[in-house]
Amino acid sequence: MVQEADQEIADTQAALASAAKLTGLEQATDVNPAHQTLEMDLDKQRAELDGIQSRRDTIARQSWMNRQQLAKLGDATSTFDDLFYAKKTE
Questions:
Q1: By three-state DSSP, how is residue 80 classified?
Q2: What is the DSSP track for 8-72?
């Protein structure tokens, strides 16, 4: 009986020593629904902004090309008018 008690004391002391070496760490695993909703809205807005910026760039490029064509058309019109006037006065 004494040996069993000694063994039980030794086991308890070993368990206490092992437990003393452990560090406690509390970690929250709950999802914050407000934060999650805001993150989803932010991601949606970023995607929408990317789409709008891409569309803006496309429209700016098309506008530049249209201005270039308009300038060429203006030059061609002047040339046509000069030739037409020259032909008319012959």
A1: helix
A2: HHHHHHHHHHHHHH-----------HHHHHHHHHHHHHHHHHHHHHHHHHHHHHHHHHHHHHHHH
CA distance 67 to 49: 27
Give the separation between CA 65 and CA 58, rounded to whole angstroms.
Answer: 11
Query: Which residue bears the tokens 């368990």?
Result: 15
Query: What tokens does 57 get?
Result: 């760039």
Q: What is the pLDDT of residues 23-72, one digit of tens each?
A: 666 666 778 889 899 999 999 999 999 999 999 999 999 999 999 999 98
- Angstrom distance (rounded) from CA 26 to CA 12: 26
